[in-house]
Structure formats: structure tokens, C-alpha cells
DNA sequence: GTGGTCTAGACCACG
DNA sequence: GTGGTCTAGACCACC
């Protein structure tokens, strides 16, 4: 499980964990139907409290990204279930690109950065 | 002063204000040496507490971005400092792209969306 | 045996099974004295653990709804007991209506939806 | 704050609290824009832990039902934000009605119960 | 003053 | 074994 938490990061730990898992799923490092590590194990691995991981799992579940079966662990549910409307997706994209433009980056540099990120997301 | 605050945004308000001003400076909308609005006025304009703006100004000052002179308000001290490092810009970009991938969008669709946004940003 | 289990359902699986059987009995689809499917078969049919079905049967037995005879399976003992009290039926109804009201539906719209559903339930 | 928690209830406490507040909002007992009680006060009133209430508030917030401003409490946000698609609302309604029909209630009895509940929800 | 998060540890429910 | 919930108490961040 390639997850790291960073205390300097302003996001709460449970959020970092949820985001990290989200990224792993997006990149295909964890395939649909595959199990996630048990709460307690992941908590021990990351050196955080069990409840912190439980909160992260709960968030992912309410997003429809994972399916939790009581007594038999959590698995990645269908990616389709996680669909958001394209409108909801555009907002964060526009915001990220705006900052890059305002920072003086040129079109080509931005496209290169996007390509770079997509490569690491999709190819893994 | 083109600043908006968004209650849904997870960032604290003072952070949104600081980030917004940083962006205005980076984009050249506020030139070096130019004065920033008085604390009280900005607070009134945005409908937030005075302390909130004060905290934002304090953050910008400790970043060396603005100079606060007691009795005569705050002025922009350095535009260069406002530039975000490419690393800081990457985070939001990655997050936005991750969500798009998770939603099942294909590489081509994402690139098209990026192109679309960039066009409206750069061309105007 | 018209039983379905829904992983998204917040009720535990054994509860869904018990509720489902209770409903079949209440509706007369399984008559008094008639046998229920063997534990193992039902477990296989639903693709769940044997213990899960056992727990469901145990609950039904302690409610006096079914009789389990060692070696010869379970049979329906009382149809009357399967009837839910009106109070128990009100809870889910209130919850469903609450959500509709919260969604902004007007009284007439809600009544129309109820009528719609009742028609398909009773006539069809 | 007309909220009660019932230990016999199978739902977790935080869920009962969230559902209860949802009902109060639906019925108009708490109007849009009005503040909710502070976490600590509600926790004390109900005799439960602060975290339990925090979990309930978090759920309501992620549903868009309330707006939480750090440092200045939680308020009821626009009811419109809580809208669910009619399809999502139909499922629970159908399930509740099905149980009533199977329990032997007649159409008139069911409609009367619906009317009864709607009256207490909308009129308050 | 407000809410948010985390820990430690306990106990329950499910399969 | 798995996840879920709750408590007590601490500390932080925001306004």
C-alpha cells in the first residue's frame, strides 16, 4: 500500500488517507473488486489511530468508491459508481489551471504538466 | 478588488483571502508599490470579521509579499515572491485530474477539457 | 424463494434475510406449515455465509414465526406473528416522506407519488 | 431542540441525531439560516459524547443540509441544496408501502397513515 | 467562544 | 478474523 502521510500537510490525516486511496484507485493500482487492507493493519502501518482510518474509509464509502462488507472487509467498488457530473469536475480543473496561468506558465508548459500528471495517474 | 470567499471551500476564510490577494499580485492586477485596501474596508466588503483579514495580511507580510506600515496601510512589496512554485501548483492539478480519471473520462476527453479551459483563460 | 440482498443496504445481511422471509410469510407466499429451504441451499442460492442464514432463522424462531426441527428442517409456524405492528411500519414511512418533503416536493406531489406506488402494488 | 435518542434503536446514535435534525428541518421547526445548537451543548443535553454529535453534523454537512462555519457554528443551509432525485426518493417509499400492503393494511388505511405523517411533518 | 481532529482503549456486531 | 461505534480527554484552528 503506497500511502504516506505528511504532518506538514494542512489536510487532516484521514483526508490524506482517503485522497491517497482515491489516487491509487484512479491509477488502477488497486483494481475493482480488490480488497483494501484491514483497518487495523493500515492504521498500524501508517502509525495512526484506528479511528482515523475508519473515518477515511467511511468517506470513501459514502462517495461510492469502496464497498464495505461488515465482517469481511472493504473492496473497491465499480468505478462507475463514483461518477461525478462534468460540471462538478470542471470547477477544480479551472481553478488549478487559473493559478498556473497567473503564475506565468505558458500554454506549452501547462500542457506538459498535465500530460505528466495524466501519465502517472493512468499508467501507474 | 476581485476577491470572493466561498463558505463551502474547505480552506479557512483568512487563507482564501490571502490566496486571493496572492493571485491578484501574481497576475499583475495589483502592481508593486500599490496600496492594498484598508483592513476595515476589505472586511466590510467581504462581510467577514476584521480579525480574519488581519490574519490574512499577517500571512502575506511574513511571506514578504506586502509591507505593512503602521498608520499608512499595506502596500505590495514584491511581485516575484507571489509566484507559486510549480510543486504547489501541481497538487490541485493532480487532484482535479484524479477526479476526472475516477469518473471514467478518457485521456482524450480530459485533454480536450483542459484545452477548452486554457483557451477561455488565455484568450480571454 | 423471492429473496434479494442488497449490499448497499445498511441492515446486516442476516437481517435482510429475516425481514424478507417475514415478508413472504406475511404476504402468504409461504403458507403455514410449509417448509422453508434448507440452510445450506438458501446460503448457496444467496451466495452468503451459512452462519448468516442460521442467524436469520434463529431470529425468526425466537419470534415464534418458524419452527426448527432438528433433522427435518424449518417450517412456518404462525402467519399471524409475521404481521408488523403499525408502529413498526410507520418508521420507514415517516423516513421516506421526510426525505421527500426535504427535497421540496409539495403535498400534492407526494400524495400523487404514493398513489402511483400503491396502484402498482395493489393492482399489479 | 426536540431530539431524543433511543438506545434500543438499532441505528447508531450519531445517525439518530442526524435523522432527527433532518426531520426538524423538513418540518420547518428549524428555518433556513437559523443556527443549530453548539456541538458541546447538544452533546451535553443528550448526554452523549461530543464526537458523536460532531459525526452527525459532518454527515449533515456533506449532505449539504447544514453549513458549518469554523468558529461561528452551524446553520441550516438552503433546503434546495438537499434535493435528491425523485428516483432516489421512490425506493424507500415503495419499500415502506410494500410492507404496509403485505401486512394486510387496506388502501384507505395506508392513505390515512400517509396523510397523518405528512400533517405532522409539514404543519409541525 | 466556536468546530475539527486525533488518540487510547473499550465493547459490539457481523460473517 | 473483519468493520462500527462510543467514550474520555487532549490539543488545535478559526473568528
Condensed summary:
The structure is a homotetramer of 124-residue chains. Chain A is mainly alpha-helical and 124 residues long. In chain A, 56% of the residues lie in helices and 6% in strands.
What value does the Rg of chain A take, in angstroms?
16 Å
Which structural class do you get from the secondary structure elements of chain A? mainly alpha
Order of neighbouring strands in the sheet with most strands of chain A:
1-2
* Unreliable spans of chain A: none
Judging by the overall fold, what is the CATH architecture of the largest domain in chain A? Orthogonal Bundle
* Number of beta strands of chain A: 2
Q: Which CATH C-level class of the largest domain in chain A is it?
A: Mainly Alpha
Please give a handful of descriptors for the protein shown.
homotetramer, 124 residues, mainly alpha, Arc Repressor Mutant, subunit A, 2 domains, two-stranded antiparallel sheet, globular, DNA-binding
Describe the structure.
The structure is a homotetramer of 124-residue chains. Helix content of chain A is 56%, strand content 6%. Chain A contains 5 helices and 2 strands; from the N terminus they run H-H-H-E-E-H-H. The first copy, chain A, has a two-stranded antiparallel sheet. In chain A, helix 1 crosses helix 3 (50-62). The longest helix of chain A is centred in the last third of the chain and has 17 residues, at 86-102. Chains in contact: A-B, B-D, C-D. Chain C binds chain D through residues 23, 26-27, 83-84, 86, 89-90, 92-105, 107, 110-111, 113-115, 117-118, 121-122, and chain D through 19, 22-23, 25-27, 65, 79-80, 82-84, 86, 89-90, 92-105, 107, 110-111, 113-115, 117-118, 121-122. The structure holds a DNA duplex (15 and 15 nucleotides).
Amino acid at each position: 500500500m503506497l500511502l504516506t502521510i505528511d504532518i506538514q500537510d494542512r489536510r487532516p490525516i484521514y483526508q490524506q488517507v482517503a485522497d491517497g486511496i482515491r489516487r491509487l484507485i484512479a491509477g488502477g493500482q488497486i483494481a475493482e473488486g480488490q480488497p483494501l487492507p484491514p483497518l487495523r493493519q493500515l492504521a498500524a502501518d501508517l502509525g495512526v489511530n484506528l479511528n482515523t482510518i475508519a473515518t477515511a474509509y467511511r468517506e470513501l464509502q459514502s462517495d461510492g468508491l469502496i464497498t464495505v462488507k461488515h465482517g469481511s472487509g472493504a473492496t473497491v467498488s465499480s468505478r462507475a459508481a463514483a461518477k461525478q457530473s462534468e460540471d462538478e469536475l470542471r470547477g477544480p480543473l479551472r481553478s488549478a489551471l487559473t493559478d498556473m496561468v497567473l503564475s506565468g506558465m505558458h500554454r506549452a508548459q501547462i500542457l506538459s504538466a498535465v500530460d505528466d500528471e495524466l501519465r502517472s495517474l493512468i499508467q501507474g
